[in-house]
Amino acid sequence: MRNDRRRGPAGSGRAGRAALAVLAGAALLTSLTAPAAADPEPAAAAAPAFASVNYAVAVDQSASLAPADIKAEKAAAARIALGDVSAASHISVFGFAAAESADQRAVDPVCPRTRLDAAGRESVGGCVEKLRSRKKSEGTGTDFPSAIRQGVHELSSGTDPSVPRVLFLLTDGEMDVTGSPQYGDPAHREAEGRRQLELELKNAAAKNVQIWPLGFGPYPDKEQLDTIAAGGFQKGCVDLPSARPTARKVSGAKDVGPVLEKIFAAAHCLRYQPGPSKRPPATLPITISPLATVGSIVVDKGTPEVTVTYTDPLGNKVPTTGKFKDSTFELAGGGGTVEALKIVDPVPGRWKVDVKAPEGHRSLPVGVSVLWQGELRGSITMDPPSPQAGQKATVTMRLQTREGYEIKDPADYAGLKVSSELTGDGFAPLPLRLADDGEGPDPTRSDGSFSGTVTVPKSADGALKVSGTLTASGLSADTRSEGGQVAPGALPVTTALGPVRGDGHPGDTVTANLSVTNTTNAPHTLRLSLADVRAGLLTVSPAEIEVKPGASATHEIKLRIGPEKSFDGRLDDGPLGIGGTVTVQDATDGDRTLVRTPLSVQVTPEPSLLDRYWWVLVGAVALIVVGVLVALAWLRQRRGRRDPHGLTLHLLSEDGDVLGVHTAGHGQKQWYAFDIAEAHSNPRIERRTTGRYAVQRSPEGGAVLRKNGGRTRERLTATGRVELTDRLSLALGEDSVRTTAPGRPDPVPTTGGSDDYL
């Protein structure tokens, strides 16, 4: 499956989608469980609204907390406040321990109830700094009942009951009220604490307050935390197991922030994507899904001195406030240890978060994560679209982005719930099971296409409708339906559409075969159309096909891919899958639908000049290489043909007697230099680098003699001789002119006085 890289097709009203299409609380639950209306409006096309949550954070301040624990709790509280994507949400933060004398209190208010608009997010980042570890004189037990009582009060006083209420309980220990007089005499305080905890949990459930406990360190009682999670309100923001309150336990303070952020995402129906953690300076990549309509990139800096810049997948350094291109940005917490960049309508893909810090502030790692909400869109088909009563039909619901692109990463819709049913005249609604498991009618596992089968009841008569609803935490619910008619018997025209052949570039055309059989004595007109795809990305032709009486033929259907500009830069990051639905209707038979089939066209980026003509480049390089090799071979051969090595030099007297024999070596620059020693008494040839004479083999045979410093050159043939002095001359021996291969002389034994000169 392919990835969608940018938001907003032309004319899609992106400014109007600035709000997030994620339904909250009871409104969302109602939309998911209600039966489809006669003509249900797709959720993706409905007016969007931000989902808000009221939540409180109770932070353990008992004396057992180390400085690192307190720092982690502060950062964790700031992360969930700054990372919230809704300006309509509210938060309150308070610390708790235990009141162990009359002048002590179990709860310490830190951040009063604050709306998380731009100003509120900024203020929460500062007020969480008031969290601290208590001294022994301030009461250091762990009073869970008082903490839960305070949280329920904060969440239920003067708030809208339709907005989800969530309490996060952070603790490093188990309940300890043995030092608190309010729980009675010392012998019964533990039992009284358990009794009051049970009462507070019942009250939380009655007030619709979910409780999400997080324990860290070696001492938290996981069983007790599970009891607390199960004792509060159990219905989450959607009717999915992932949104039901659960307790988590982590090993240490370093994991508090990331884990709390994860359970915060589950409680608030956000999608959560963790990123890397590195010491500055560093570039931290984080991916935003193509489904996201709003998100927050959260950066845990560790120290306020860290500076952060953000680069979108298109290479733009984005601002931290205001509008840039089609996105809106809002930064909070820039001066603290945690900051978050909220983005409405973000560019999907791989973002880069660059972090820097001055010397002395680079010891702590910087972590990055993203929280987001988005839209999930589906398309539904039934094959055949006009089945007969008693016939089996295959129903397919396929997932797409809101712009009609296929979804590349299954993690984007993890936890998805798909429900479907068949309704119609003459029978009660039939529930359907649609699965993406690669079994039965589903051809491929985990490709975002959910399929199932249904047998149309024999009592069916008239209209049919198949509908399906997609539900996933953090994604808006989407209901789709498709209508049809029960066929009265064998249809006059039958059709079958084959698969799309091949991939294509922008502007290309791909094809599929449509088989048509007309069993009547009258002509029929078939009309073709394309749905579930953004205008301009894909077109189908021909628009009509005339089928002759009694004809049976195969027609080629052409699907033309839109031009490069219609993809608006989405192909920069690689291929994309365009999803659509081809519909074929018989206009002669009351526009009866004969084919309604999902299709997928893979679009690859327009090839560059190098991609187009790589073979020319390879051929040119190959020719150059061959040319170089030939030239080197020629030069080597030419050099070998002139190499003096092996020439036998005969020194002759006036009478032609041989006075000495000398075999030449390789020489220098293909010249073997020599001189005549003791020319008047005992003449002989000796190798000398600055000799008056030099010989070189001639390519035409024989040799060339150089005399007088190179000013004179004479040819030495196999039978001739050249004068050296008035009394001496030079000739070649017979071995000097025999060869075993062109330019390669036979080896000649070295005689006394010979010397190879290298």
TrEMBL record:
Keywords: Membrane, Signal, Transmembrane, Transmembrane helix. The keyword Transmembrane applies. The chain crosses the membrane at residues 613-635. Residues 429-456, 733-758 are annotated as: Disordered. Residues 54-267 form the VWFA domain. Residues 446-456 have a biased composition (Polar residues). Gene3D superfamilies: von Willebrand factor, type A domain. Residues 1-36 form the signal peptide. Coiled coil: none annotated. InterPro entries: VWF_A, vWFA_dom_sf. This is VWA domain-containing protein. It comes from Streptomyces anulatus (Streptomyces chrysomallus).
